[in-house]
Every structure is written in C-alpha cells, then in structure tokens.
Amino acid sequence: MLRLPTFTYHRPKTAEAAVALACEHGASAMFVAGGTDLYPNMKRRHQVPAHVISLQDLPGIDRVEVHEQGGVRIGAMTKLATLEHDPHLREHFPAFAHAVREISTPLLRNMGTIGGNLLLDTRCTYYDQSHEWRESIDFCMKKDGAICWVAPGSPRCWAVQSSDTVPVVCALEAEVELVGRDGRRRIPAGELYQDDGIQYLTKKPEELLTYLYLPPAGGWKASYLKLRRRDTFDFPVLGVAVCLWFDDAGTVTKANIRLGGAGSYAIPATASEELLVGQRLTDELIAAAGSAAMKPARTMDNTDLDVYWRRKVAPVYVARAIAACR
Prior knowledge:
The chain is of the alpha+beta class and 326 residues long. It has a domain at 219-326: CO dehydrogenase flavoprotein, C-terminal domain (Enolase-like, domain 1), CATH 3.30.390. 29% of the residues lie in helices and 20% in strands. It has a five-stranded antiparallel β-sheet with strand order 4-5-8-6-7. Strand 4 and strand 5 (72-75) form a beta hairpin. Helix 10 (270-276) runs antiparallel to helix 11 and helix 11 runs antiparallel to helix 12 (307-323).
C-alpha cells in the first residue's frame, strides 16, 4: 500500500492567508484543491511538501457566475461535476462542458476542481510510477534524477501536458486570475503555460489561481476531441481544441487550434490556423488544415499507444474538430 508522507495541514480562510502561508514556508509548501492529483503524487513521492495548504475553506470561488455581457466567471474550486452539468455552460460553451465531462471518472469529477485540472502536473511513462520503480531504473530529471529517459540526450524534460480543459481554455482565449504577494493579476490562460515538462507553469509557486474567465459567447464556435485507449477514464494521448471566429458570410476571421497530450503545453497548430483564416470551410480546406497539423504534433514515446500512430492520427482529429465547428 502506498502511504502519504508526513506533512502539516493548513486550512486558511482567505486567498490572501493562503498566499501568506505559501510565502512563509516557501518551497516546502503546496496548495491542494480536490487532491485527486497531488495526493497520489505524494504517495509516489513525486512531491513531498512539508506543508499542504487546503483551499477548501476559501469563500466565493466554488461557483459559476454568468455576466450580463455573456461571459462566465468560474471559481477555481468549482467541482468538475458541477461544471459538466451546468445548463448555461452546456448551452453556450458546449466544447468546454464536453472537455470537463471527458475528465477521468464521475467519482473523481465529484472531487476534482477546475483549478486543479488547469494546473495538472505533466505526465510521463517514466515519471508516473512508484518511488521504488523509478529508483530501480534510476530517477529522471523531473524528480531526483539528471536524465530524461524519453530523450536521454536532451537537456530538458519532455513530460506531457495531459489536461482536457487546458487546450480548450487556450483556444477560447479565456483568462485566469492569480493572487500573489503583490495582489491580484489577470492574464490570458495561454500565458499560464510554457513548453517545459518541469517548469510547465509561468505563475510563481506562491501564486494562487482563483478564477477562470470564459469570453462572451457569440461569433465563434468551438469543439474538443479526445483520443485515449479506454473511453472510460484514461488521460488523453491527444486532445484537440478548435475555436473559429466567423463573419456574417461564414468566412473564418480568426482560428485557434491547440493540441494537448502531444507536448509539455497545449501546442498551437499555427500552419493549420493560417490556412483557415480568410476562407470558408470546405471539405478540401478542412483536410488540408488537418494535414498541416502533423508537424507540430511532436509525439514522443512517453505516454500510451504507439508514438508513430499517434502522430499520424493527429491530422485526422484536427480535421474532425474543425468540421465540428462548421
């Protein structure tokens, strides 16, 4: 049986108090929301914080609020199950609601939060194992070691971003609010991530994610498709999010396409986006935009299913996700 390491548990009552605790204890402290990612990682000794700061008692960040302009503010502690069943999100943000519904199992969606899923730890075949397994082959650079077993000659970690909601919020150009020692700041969701398996977040360690802001619905359509071995609960080996903006004539005026599960962040399929802008969606254009997504889908042998097959299926899923927006 895998057991949790010893730690001190804190339950602050405000976001500012939580940040103050994180600043006080520094690198030995971590926030916990639903605990569906952190606690299993602690059992495998991926993270061993001496201080765990619970966000359960923070007021006002566990609900969905609809603005008059049509935008939505979602508290970071809102349960995933709440979001998947929210009638407003299902009607006006179906791609986001669908991505939430694709996360894990009903049991974990009843515990997990949107904030936790947005900040999900990157994953890798060589990293997501018990401490004893990793010790037997020598540790990797993401935790305790000096080598990336996926690409031994690489100076960086190639662990994969496997959140279902990250590609969608990046494609939608959503925003997030962070609370830190210097107060609150609001940034585009895409700026929260960077292409590194270890330092995959740009936020400061003591900063707390409090809200997700979805833009007003209208003028755009979005979709999300997920590839995984088992449709019941597996992490994505590919997650494609597409958001297209149209004018009154049906011409694409802007396109955002993000590939999850294929790299350490949600990779922009820039060439596919450029093909779509200024055009009306036809079968030929959709197929060409899908084919252009093969190059950025730089799949590696660090997750489920065959690496070469996953790369070849990326254009198929991109084309299907674009067609779903037509």
